[in-house]
């Protein structure tokens, strides 16, 4: 299974997922404190979710969250864990009425207090500067805790500790206080210290942080790194059902975990996608983005194998990832029925003939069983089919009782027109260092609403690699300084269907 970013309601999507398939779940759902200002992205999907979530008071919020956590419990493997991030407005309700009820009090592991120093003045009470992260396991006896991977340096310096080196060359400190009786306790420096349940060493992101993407409740990568390292292993599957700014999946990818990220917001999904593309690992697994609509050009001319894998998964099949000894077939349904994908239009009769031969070579016994039962013996997926292919499929069914189904791509997913984009620039002043300030204005039109723009000041025209340095521009206007020389700027626009267009500007600045 490829890693997945999915646009949609997490409750509906989780109900379609297999039980006991997830190793670790981290969720940072909208806090109850956000009820009056929660539309962080501001797109239609988030607004609809917002209106549903706050139809009632705290009881409605707890009911809304509880049915989702119920599905998360079903999805977790026996060795799995859930980390639920919340604040003081609803933490007591969440623990008593959701987590204790669904996971059981005996599976409570930790209540982590994440303390951070940010601005604010306490005028009528002590400052509230912490969040709560509840950790529950699926089963108390089997859960994962990689203590050594999250150990922190041990601070030493008290008078009653003695330093030494053992026979294996390991440095240690030993308690030799005369007031203690019995066996002395020894701490090895290389073992570090297990973090306590109050985390003060991970700070909230400040406005100038390099990680910051413009998402108001974005969590630092260090926070998710500690959780993912502690409660999962390499190759495990991590789920974030409220993907938000994408921090969980970005960290999971860096730590060589598989992942699924879900969100109602198009902006959340597309920003998360761009964050992943900014820092790919050498051996990163491919990932797919599941939207409600897709544009023809992107699908028709993307990498052939990537398209085959993606469309077969969208169809509900299992892609052939090995590409060897496959008899020319690209995948199969879960019952073994072969699938072939043609990334082209007007697929003709010869494709049908070759596909039937491949099905017979692949598993003739299965084909004969399906023919006898009047079942489909294979699927061909393409953008469109010519009259010859349609006629041949009809002939095979009528004369030979062989049922091959021709599946158009637009019957699997909705195809829409991507937005148009126009970008202009204007040269402004030159500063004392000889840098020229440029003003860029992007205007776009779409059948859907325009959500945001992203900007890459060093676009690589040779590889067509887009690495945005401005991720979330709602207005479509930016100012940037450039040194004399040749430059290429890339601009991306995203609409509310998740469809995107990239335009580039190439220009050369001369020394005045």
Tags for this model:
9-stranded mixed sheet, 512 residues, alpha/beta, Rossmann fold, 28% helix, 5-stranded mixed sheet, 30% strand, 4 domains, Trna Endonuclease, Chain: A, domain 1
Helix tally equals 13
Strand content: 25-35%
CATH fold field value of the largest domain: Rossmann fold
The main sheet comes to: 9 strands, mixed
Quick one: CATH class of the largest domain?
Alpha Beta
| Uncertain stretches | none
Q: Report, as a whole number of angstroms, the end-to-end distance.
A: 56 Å
Fraction of helical residues: 25-40%
- Tertiary shape: globular
How many strands in all?
Answer: 26
Q: Within the largest sheet, what's the order of strands?
A: 9-4-5-3-2-10-11-1-12
Looking at this structure, what is the CATH superfamily of the largest domain?
Vaccinia Virus protein VP39
Under the CATH scheme, the architecture of the largest domain is 3-Layer(aba) Sandwich
- Mean model confidence by pLDDT: 89
**How many separate structural domains?**
4
> What is the structural class?
alpha/beta
The Rg value, from CA coordinates, equals 28 Å
Summed up, what is this model?
With about 500 residues, this protein is an alpha/beta fold.
Tell me what you see in this structure.
With 512 residues, the chain is an alpha/beta fold. It folds into four domains: 3-147 and 200-290, Vaccinia Virus protein VP39 (Rossmann fold); 161-191, no CATH class; 295-414, Trna Endonuclease, Chain: A, domain 1 (3-Layer(aba) Sandwich); 417-509, Immunoglobulins (Immunoglobulin-like, Sandwich), CATH 2.60.40.10. Helix content is 28%, strand content 30%. The chain has helices at 10-15, 44-53, 58-75, 91-103, 147-150, 221-231, 247-254, 266-278, 296-300, 304-315, 349-372, 387-400, 409-412, and strands at residues 3-7, 22-27, 76-86, 108-115, 130-137, 161-165, 171-175, 186-188, 198-199, 237-240, 258-263, 287-290, 293-295, 318-319, 331-332, 338-342, 376-382, 403-408, 414-416, 420-430, 436-445, 450-456, 470-473, 477-482, 485-495, 500-509. It has a nine-stranded mixed β-sheet, with helices on both faces. Helix 7 links the parallel strand 10 (237-240) and strand 11. The longest helix has 24 residues, at 349-372. The protein is globular. It starts with a strand and ends with a strand. The mean pLDDT is 89.
